[in-house]
Structures are given as structure tokens and as C-alpha cells.
């Protein structure tokens, strides 16, 4: 059976994984893209977004690439899927990623509002799960088979799964920036008591990579 | 004129710089010593505490050593000076560090309760300042002359000085551990808005060193 993991998850030095006031213009919240300074130049990101040739290889890229392999299903929070809050006004919004999202596998979106699945190009199907994080995880496990399940984010979703000790492994990419305000990944969460332990610190070109395991 | 700095200031990955429930047995709070895993093995620490020969050299030690040089005065919060809260019961308590503290210069202790200065061996004199952080800084500047002023900690003291933009430079030593609970250095402080910026990330043997400057 595959593992449940969070990978290439950017955090600022002050512990935020998104800036405040997410919107269509600011998918990661105001100033949130500052955390992604390590990711945007990588070959992985550039390939993934069809942004042309090139891109950097190295430690940061290795982590970015690894985060995209071996995943049989993804789970995303509603805010990671889009800026819309409350009931879906119509079927227009299909994620931030255009016709061909970078997932290529069944992707489960946590929401309080039911919606029909959306089949996208390249193998991604978005399924909308309204009965909680445990249910989404069961569905993702069934879809993933032997492969891994990646919890994509955002902060609130990751925190909910951490609180229930449902994540086996985390890879955080610490960016050397302050966001000052936004969504904290750590606040009010006692990861020590929950049994999480930092296994390894790996310096990258533009971020410090921290590998965290859940102890049994 | 010297700079006002915080150096070799240990923080956990979840942003704590002390564990909860500080006491005589736990000067850094419960589990707080986990953050010091990078510092205790250094030659600087071992020399400083007369703990015998040896100790490791390398990046972590270079930062530890640098933090101790060029300081003409120190400022410490009451909790960094000792575990006693409220009025001083007597003159017994003279800090955690024995007869010869590692400061060797005038050291100003923030407190709400007046007390006579204490002259220690090796050049350290503890002065007790009851009229606030600005006053302590002025006294420290007068004592330091052209040399630097180091704000030793703890978290609350550093946060108070940061909030007033009175710190020019910070060196944080990020330890790859979770404390889960304790005194957060970042919570509720918008360091971005205050004009602080991470200048450099330096991987050490057991900690990741972050150099932060105040922009003008």
C-alpha cells in the first residue's frame, strides 16, 4: 500500500503556507508567491506548465520532481481548487490549472457543496467530496491502489489531516522569506505530541528541505 | 556605533524558542534543550562552560563563536535570567551561569522589580532595569560604546524589541525539531511589515542558520 504524503509544500520562515486574502489574482494569497521562489525556476515546474524549454536542475528540482511521481490520487482543499466560497454558482470553475491540470490521476476536492465530477485532459478527474476528510482519504486509497496519495494542500487541509495523524510523511520546502500574515501551518498544532519528527534537513539552491515522518 | 543584534538564537521548526513551563530544572522550558542540539557540541559552548577540552568546529561553531564576539553589552529578559517570577525574595539568585557568566560585559536584565547590581567574576555585571526596553537599550548603548549590543533573549524580550524595530540584525539557528508548545518567536508579529528580510541561509552541521536584516 502506498503512503499518504505532503510534498514540496512551501512554507515561509514564519510558518505560513499561504498569504492572506486569497483571490483569483492571488491564488496563494497576497505575497504568497514569494514562497515559491524555489519552485518556479525548476525544470519540473516549467515542464509541467508548458512554459517552454529549460528550467533549472539540482536539489530543488529533484524534490519538485520526486513530489510528482508515484501518486495514484490527490486530495485538495476547496481553496486550493479555487477562489470561490460557498455554493458553486455554476459549473464554470475547473481549477487554477487550465484544461490539463498537473495531477493526471483522480483528484478529490474537499467541499461542503456537492458537484458532479469533472473529467479533465491528461487523466485528471476532479471528484467533489462532501462527507469529510476520512471519506476523501478512503476514496483516494481506493483510487490509488498501490500508489501514493498526495495531500496537495492548502494549509487548512494539511492541518486537518495532521491533527488526525493521517499523514505518513511530509516534505516541507522552507523559503527564506517572511510572509508576516496568512495561513499558518503550525499554529495550534502540537506536531511533537502527534508523533511527527524531522528526519532530515537538505539544503537546496533556494529553499531548505525538511523531511518529516510520523513515528508509530 | 555598534549594532543591536540577536545571535545564535535557537528556534524549532514550528517557531518556538522555548518550551513551556520554564523552571529551575528546565531553563529553556520542557524539551527546550532539544533546540540546542547544534550548540552544545560546539567548541564555543564547551570552552565557555569550562566543560573540558574538545568540542566540534565547523559552521555551527563559527556562528556560535561569532555571536560571542564584539559585544559591549547584553540585554536579557527576566526569564532568561532565572526562573523566579514576581518580586525578588532575596539576593540569592544570580543567574543560571554560576560565578562567572559567559557575558564578560555589563548585562542589563529587564524586570518589574528593582534590585541592586550584581558584580560577577570575569567582567559581567548584572544591572536590573525597571523602566522598560527603551531605557535598557539606552543604558546598554552607553555601556557598549562603539561595540555591539546583543539581545540575548528570551522570546518575549526579542519580540518586544522587534515590534519597535530596535533590532538591526538577527541570526536564527533553526533546529530540525518540533517543540509543539512553548514560546513562539513569530506568532502575531508581522516581520515583513516591520521591514525584516532574510538575507542569507547557511546550512550548518546540525542547524540551518538564517541571517535577517532590518531594511531602512
Structure, described:
Two copies of one chain form a homodimer. The first copy, chain A, has five helices and eleven strands, in the order ββααβαβββαβαββββ. Chain A is of the alpha/beta class. Chain A has one domain: Dihydrofolate Reductase, subunit A (3-Layer(aba) Sandwich), CATH 3.40.430. In chain A, the strands form two sheets. Chain A has a nine-stranded mixed sheet with strand order 5-6-4-3-7-1-8-11-10, sandwiched between helices. A two-stranded antiparallel sheet of chain A has the order 2-9. In chain A, a hairpin with a 4-residue loop joins strand 10 and strand 11. The two termini of chain A are 17 Å apart. Chains A and B meet through strand 10 of A and strand 10 of B.
Features:
homodimer; 216 residues; alpha/beta; Dihydrofolate Reductase, subunit A; nine-stranded mixed sheet; 28% strand; globular
